[in-house]
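Friendly challenge for the regulars: who can give me the structure tokens for this chain first? No prize, just bragging rights.
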Amino acid sequence: MTSEQNSRTLILCFLAALCEGIDLQAAGVAANGIIRALHPGSRLLTYFFSASTLGLMCGAAFGGRLADRIGRKSVLVGSIAVFGFFSLLTAWAWSIESLIWARLLAGLGLGGTLPNLISLGAESAAEHRRTLTVTIIYAGMPLGGALASFLTMLIAPAQWRWIFILGGVTPLLVAPAIAALLQESRAFRALRAGAAASRGHKAGVSAVIGEGRAGRTLLLWVSFFLALMTLYLLLNWLPTLLVSSGLDKSQSAAAMIAFNIGGCLGAIIMGAHLETRRRQRGVLIVFLGLPLVLLLLAVAPREAALVVPVVFVLGATVLAAQSTLYAYAPLCYPTRIRGAGVGFAVAAGRFGSMVGPLLGGLLVVGGMSTFRVLTGMLPVVILGSVCAVLLAWRPPPALGE
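First reply, four minutes later:
Bragging rights claimed.
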């Protein structure tokens, strides 16, 4: 690809990630309005939070494998269109049950989007800019989340449907642009043109754990599971926890904007750092700092002037950790199984993102305070950090073409 084509791929993939970020954040920031309008109990609200992530898990595993067969671009465009349509449909849900089903179907499209964004980004970038490219693309997600949170500051809780309208219209505009302007990755086109494209090859679990990849793949899956479990518990329950601990709606929305802006900056800074020789030191700082920042939020006085900066730093560390995993994932697999490899890793993470809101719901229903909920997450965060550091200390192989 020329530099112009690489830049175009980066911009379009970043926009697609931004759309996904809007949709992923929509459930958490719309929760207070949904509670007032549809009166779900904690159990149904937890199902609502987890519905899209169940679809995400299935969509990621299937979408990654399908992309290895028919191409990253085709699956990406279809996935964006699917989650845009069903997100828009969510705005017209008439009950909590219909809302849950709409989110489940939107999740199928969301799941197929991210593995292909990551694979396209890694395969389109110059070798010395691959991790930075992937992390810049990933940074679009927290920025999209910040836009969703900002919208809640402009509208009343009763207007929560506008959040899903934004989350539906935006990807339906981006999908045609990607279809018209984005090129399939050179690595995939070369593979398809060669003999390997016309011969059957394994692309399932056996392929991603074969040829000495089992240990790395296992660390990747556990790291993704625990990291996204933590992230989605925070995305879905932190706004509600902040309100219940004394912040008002605007202060809670400001905190979530800070979380996402911090995450966007943290992902980009981490991506640039991963291109240096000191990348292992940076990984160590991020993953050791994450549980400490979470503990700081748990004990901080419930004043917006203190909580918002801490949430900003928490977002930066959480998303820097996430971006590290997404940057490493495509480096672990050759082109012929990269879609499947990244897809299965994302699916493991999506399983964690489904468990996270459920765990948060159990803790909240159990009557735990904000302090108890946040400190209860610490063992999960620490274990995930250990796995991620071990992964980073095993240098990834060269990106096979």
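The chain has one domain: 3-181+205-392. The longest helix spans residues 3-38. Your move, everyone else.
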